[in-house]
């Protein structure tokens, strides 16, 4: 029997194999660090008199707390400022490179790793952040960890890990027009549920995945955790190698690296513990209506009612979600009016996402009274977009053009929803209060978010041009 | 961390599925750089609702929380188990847990117990019908004694159980294998990107 991509990467990193007596000890190639989940880990090191074993495999950035306007004024919120300062101090003390507020390389941790070329096939990558799964798009084994584990990796460059199970999600058939990576992963989560992949590392496969750009694959892998998966992976191929080549941290002997990377994809006869199929041609653009990413429907559909579910736990969850979201159930998805549009996050804050949204926005204006903002995933994405004139397209249409950070994806900085406010958001979580206490979030793709900003309600991006013309 | 062996206590019920870590500890409290003091912010937004179940006097001092499936999903924030522990919980029982949350619990000396759906329903039902009712969790034997007196075994990995029973520090255990880590680093051609070139 052949070997899976996951297993090949795992085997390459076993320092001590696992067994009945205990978990394996896995070597970590790259440890990404941000301000929210690291301070207590550095304190722990100091308390125990330990050092960082491999600062040369560690990289820090400030992203969750940072303001996205008026950076020159510094961080006004005192606790946020102290947290970012603690990151800078810790990084300097332990010799770890750090991108803070004024760095042109600053950005969301899962955006800067790939864009600088640090994220490469076959690596093990961890970060105190659940969306570390993003880096799996390169054929790396990348997963989120808690602060105790952050401390563990800082001290030992390894992690004890029980071997997860494997699952393959195959996207069959070609992408229909107007259906993009975000719709693939939302559709898959809708199909399997928010705990559907619990305990598993998922490999995404099939022609629709092969056809995606690296940005698209990152969007898919990013939301693996929303299906409960430990990690998500895509087999590396020419698309991957072309993306990595020429980036700052790309291997010096690139051809030799590619030779090694070509061995990574799962063997044709590799078996997975579980398989799931997604029928791509039947997918429409997806929109969430509830308070978990699994509460999702096609834009052409309707908000469900609790009675449509059999399981009493589901019924209660739907009832609660509808109440929180201010929806009755039964209304058409396209009738839902929006107050705010947020374009950004580690799911959809890359250059290609901004291009897709700008394409929709060009020549239109944001609906009167609606707040719309673009928050690039990194300062480098911002600079690239400005070089392409995308900032002008957005600004002229009435979008706010911001600096890089997590921003309204979780609202730890001042960018938040007010109670009852409703957003179309390109981020990854629609939990209660995620974007601000009482805020109501509908997760969508960048083009769908842009279209909603123009019409003022959720709308099918495939037909909205015609609808506008007829209006 | 503190060892955990046998816990006998009142049970606090949380009759919801998919309780995410944004609910357990909302983001505005993640700005603190200390490790303690999160308990007062546990379920902060829900507690502002008029009548919050876990604040009822009958559940005061509960060390066991029982909840619906997929407890602790979402963000990797260890602040969630910190808040639960700081509030007084040593054990969380559910039909399933999000992977990162479950790991985080075991790293700080909190015990996540997975029980079949029916048993969880029974415990939640008992705790709602007779607030203040208690039960026992025995980690050494991997057994819980339900409020109705039935004993049910649960599964936990041996290594995790040993660590929790003894309160062992995971980093200390791994450092015992420093030679293997050195050997691994030396044997493997050190390919892969070096971050300190940025300094
Ligand atoms: S953009 Fe959102 S999901 Fe991504 S790292 Fe930041 S807060 Fe987390």
Describe the structure concisely.
Chain A is α/β, with parallel strands linked by helices and 471 residues long. Chain A has 17 helices and 19 strands. Chain A is globular, with a radius of gyration of 22 Å.
Structure write-up:
The complex is a heterodimer of chains A (471) and B (199). In chain A, β9 (165-172), α6 and β10 (200-205) form a beta-alpha-beta unit. A five-stranded parallel sheet of chain A has the order 5-4-3-6-7. In chain A, strands 17-16-15-18-19 form a five-stranded parallel sheet. A four-stranded parallel sheet of chain A has the order 11-10-9-12. With 471 residues, chain A is an alpha/beta fold. Chain A has 17 helices and 19 strands. Chain A has helices spanning 5-12, 39-48, 78-94, 109-115, 147-156, 181-192, 207-210, 214-222, 238-244, 254-261, 312-325, 345-348, 351-361, 379-387, 390-397, 446-455, 464-470; strands at residues 14-16, 24-27, 30-34, 58-61, 98-99, 124-127, 141-144, 158-161, 165-172, 200-205, 231-233, 274-279, 286-288, 296-298, 340-344, 371-375, 400-401, 422-425, 440-443. Helices cover 33% and strands 17% of the residues of chain A. By secondary structure, chain B is α/β, with parallel strands linked by helices. Chain B has one domain (6-181): Aconitase, domain 4. Helix content of chain B is 32%, strand content 16%. Chain B has helices spanning 21-24, 44-47, 79-87, 99-107, 117-129, 158-166, 170-175, 178-187; strands at 6-14, 64-67, 91-94, 111-114, 134-138, 143-145, 151-153. Chain B has a seven-stranded mixed sheet. The two termini of chain B are 36 Å apart. Chains A and B meet through α2, α3, α5 and α11 of A and α4, α7 and α8 of B. The structure holds iron/sulfur cluster. Iron/sulfur cluster is lined by residues 63-64, 108, 110, 129, 131, 345-346, 406, 409-410, 427-428 of chain A.
